[in-house]
Amino acid sequence: MNAPAYNLPGITPQPAMGASPAPEASVNDTGARTVAEVMAQTQVQQVMDALDHDLVGLKPVKTRIRDIAALLVIDRLRMNLGLAAQAPSLHMSFTGNPGTGKTTVAMRMAQILHELGYVRSGHLVAVTRDDLVGQYIGHTAPKTKEVLKKAMGGVLFIDEAYYLYRPENERDYGQEAIEILLQVMENQRDDLVVILAGYKDRMDTFFQSNPGMNSRIAHHIEFPDYAEDELAQIAHHMLEIQNYKLDDEAQQAFKRYLQLRKQQPHFANARSVRNALERARLRQASRLFANPHQALTAEDLSTLRAQDILASRVFQSQKASS
Amino acid sequence: MLTNPTGKVTQGQFSFLPDLTDAEISMQIQYGLNKGYAWSVEYTDDVHPRNTYWDMFGMPMFDLKDPAGVLLEVNTCRKTFPNHYIRLMAFDSTRGIESVAMSFIVHRPPQETGYRLERQEVQGRSLRYTTHGYPMDKPENSRYGK
Question: Which residues from chain B sit within 8 angstroms of residue A3, using beta carbons?
Answer without folding.
Answer: 7
